[in-house]
Design goal:
The relative contact order is 0.10. This protein is 60% helix and 1% strand. Helix 1 (28-52) crosses helix 5 (113-119), helix 8 packs antiparallel against helix 10 (173-196) and helix 15 (333-342) packs across helix 18 (408-418). It contains 18 helices and two strands. It is mainly α.
Amino acid sequence: MPVDVTLPAVPYRPPLPQDVWQAWNWDPLLMAGLVLAGALYASGILRVWRQAGAGRAVSYVQVAAFACGLLNLAAALVSPLDAMSSALLSVHMVQHLMLMLVAAPLLAFGTPPVAFAWILPRRSQLARWWRKRARLRQAWHGFSQPAVIWIMYNAILWLWHLPNLYQAALLDEGVHIVEHLTFLTVALLFWWKLMRDRSLSTGMGALYVFTTALVSGFLGVLLTFSQRVWYPVYGVVAYGWGLTPLQDQQLAGVIMWFPGGLIYLAATLLLLGTILHPRGRPEPLGAEGSRRVAVAPRRSLPLLLFLLLGSACRGEAGAAEAVDRPFMPGGDAERGAEFIEVYGCPACHTIPGIPEAHALVGPPLTGWVERVYIAGAVPNTPDNLLLWLQDPQQIEPGTAMPDMGITEQAARDIGAYLYTLESGDGD
């Protein structure tokens, strides 16, 4: 039985099946954005691989994921799917899921922090500007907390599905662009936080995703079982596609409920699997870039005894140890902490005493003063450290550490700070 809806005057002509394949969206700004994103990413990856070797630092799988994410964006926004979304609510729902649950996680997975370090090799001025904006940094720190991102993600999902806002997006292309940008932005934040933030434990990450599945699924349930049309702007166009407006809406609800829910469920199960089978999780990189090797308990006993004996003798050797501790001539450790942030070192390393420096792209810098070698190649001396900071390729050809253009004085200050880091320092 036909549903009694009205069809407001709309500034577009929704396509019918016979002409949908001619309805491609070649918007210049959209195409420029996709091409620019791909070009910047490719330039950064080529710099990484030119220095570190193909497939190192950023894996082939991550590059493939980013490429698939861009292709997914093109499929959602450029292909006839975009035109069909103006005719059918169910297709519009598919488009939104492609943005938030397919493109966003692929892009987040494919863009580790080291990629940013190479995409923007001369970002020191921007970093210095950011360093001076203490209030802005504090605001961003609060804004990027997992709970805040969770609230934003689910709030934006619900707000844009309110009838007035949803129909406004269909009737005004500018509002429609804002809708898609907010969906993609919060989704990128959501998945990036899940994949990259060490402060979000695996268990909390699973809860983070599972509760989102419940909130999103509930909206899908409401759309599925509602007996009234939520968005009259679609009018009677659905009849041209063999559906009534109410059937189209119910199909949209099922799409949000089941396929969307399955993606959230898969992510939750993957996270729970890493808790139940921790041996399947890759170990973080060790101090010299090699993977830590688990030691069997019995074989570790001699090592434990050796360490105990060593600690007993430490008191007698304390004075000599203090004399042998390396230090950086002409360096200022306090200033070095500032330069560490200016040159973007927290994007790749865990560094005690540096806010938000919890990355695992490169080895953690904890206990630097006690290290014997730099990059496993040369002795840990002030001169070698200066060379490593200013020209890492001379120390280890092919290293993934980028040449950041660090000045000699900045390198001395950073070295002075690194030589204050002992193994007992916290993150």
